[in-house]
Specification:
five-stranded mixed beta sheet; five-stranded antiparallel beta sheet; 32 strands; about 0% helix; globular
Length: about 400
């Protein structure tokens, strides 16, 4: 199943994990599930958020020891119409959700117990020239946390917002004619921004959030739409794209420009690679891929030169027919994958060698059928990367303790 077919068939859900102090009230010693299993929150606490596109809400969870998820109270908070992509500021204090249907951004403060409180105003409108409106497919904040960028894939515009000290977004400018743009990604350390889909454009971010093309302005890519991910250490980038079997591989130069390492490889399982995600330690790349045999999760090791080597096994069969997303917890112990048919989250344990095994965790209900991804991890600075489809996203952020 290709990216466009999936986006039309799948509902909308997004996840984000945040590491902060306290969990569900800041001192819960254990929570008993409906199956009679006692779950103890991690310390320091980690939180997971799921954007439910059909119920127009965001679910919020605490991560327990062993990786199980505990719903917070309240279990959901209201969002706009069709929330899809999630992003946070570098310090993990605020969360933003793009609402695909009504072309708005919801904005929240992340409390010490992980619960979300809407800012004032609760939503910010995003202008669109597309006949159907909507189309907000990707969000990212720059490394300084001063600017948020939102791509509208319906009319190929890039919207720039200034982030105030309260976390509220203030609209700045709209950049038109961002050709075939499905993602926007900020470098985790440099003032550099990447946008693209069929091509990848690279820009220097100015002190006012403005964008100046780097030299070269674009980087060579394989054929077909792609979705970019950078390693948290900022050294390498990987582009998943339709029609390949492993992501295209790039080195990130000192000025933020990308240099090709390997445009395409056929060393992994057959399928159409689309959505790469990188672990917090910049050691492994996991890519959601779909083909004639269904959806698989590819597992690759990142070499010291940035080139990918398949792990053993090289891929996990997920038994699904639609593209998914995945999110790391900030410590890099667990991965969460939405189950589109069961409307739940499935957890995986990351082994020391990078291979994944299913967690024996209770089923946790979410919104409907996920698609797309955005993944971020941060300490004092934003440390990871993003790739996004027009319907689903993950964000993983580490927040420094108070």
């Amino acid at each position: 199943m290709n990216r466009i077919m999936c986006a039309g068939m799948c509902a909308l859900l997004a996840l984000t994990a945040v590491l902060i102090a306290g969990c569900g009230g800041g001192g819960t010693s254990g929570t008993t599930t409906t199956t009679g299993v006692t779950l103890t929150p991690l310390s320091p606490a980690e939180f997971v958020y799921a954007a439910n596109g059909r119920s127009n809400s965001i679910s919020q969870y605490c991560v327990a020891v062993g990786g199980a998820l505990i719903p917070l109270t309240p279990a959901t908070v209201a969002a706009g119409i069709g929330p899809t992509v999630l992003a946070t500021d570098p310090k993990g204090q605020f969360l933003y959700a793009s609402n695909l249907t009504d072309s708005t951004l919801s904005q929240y403060r992340i409390g010490g117990d992980g619960t979300l409180t809407p800012l004032s105003p609760a939503t910010v409108s995003v202008a669109s020239t597309a006949p159907s409106n909507g189309g907000l497919s990707s969000l990212t904040e720059d490394a300084s946390g001063r600017f948020l960028y939102a791509v509208n894939s319906s009319d190929n515009t890039l919207h720039v917002f200034t982030v105030s000290s309260s976390g509220a977004l203030q609209s700045g400018r709209t950049i038109p004619n961002v050709t075939t743009s499905s993602f926007v990604v900020a470098h985790p350390q440099l003032s550099v921004l990447y946008t693209g889909g069929d091509t990848v454009s690279q820009f220097q971010i100015g002190s006012d959030g403005s964008l100046t093309p780097l030299s070269p302005a674009t980087v060579q890519t394989p054929a077909g739409p792609g979705f970019l991910a950078l390693t948290p250490n900022g050294k390498f980038a990987y582009l998943g794209f339709d029609g390949s079997t492993t992501p295209a591989q790039y080195q990130v130069n000192a000025n933020g420009t990308l240099s090709v390492l390997d445009l395409a490889s056929s060393t992994n399982t057959p399928g159409a690679t689309s959505l790469p995600t990188i672990d917090p330690g910049s050691r492994f790349v996991y890519t959601i891929a779909g083909g004639t045999s269904g959806v698989v999760l590819l597992q690759d090791r990142i070499g010291t030169d940035g080139r990918l080597t398949p792990l053993t096994p090289s891929a996990l069969q997920l038994g699904l027919t639609e593209f998914l997303s995945l999110a790391y917890d900030p410590s890099g112990q667990f991965i969460y994958v939405p189950g589109p048919t069961s409307n739940s989250l499935v957890g995986f344990l990351i082994g020391s060698n990078g291979t994944l095994s299913t967690l024996p965790m209770p089923t946790v209900q979410t919104g409907n059928v996920p698609v797309g991804v955005i993944s971020t991890r941060s300490t004092l600075r934003r440390r990871a990367v993003q790739a996004a489809l027009s319907a689903h996203a993950f964000v993983i952020v580490r927040r420094p303790l108070p």
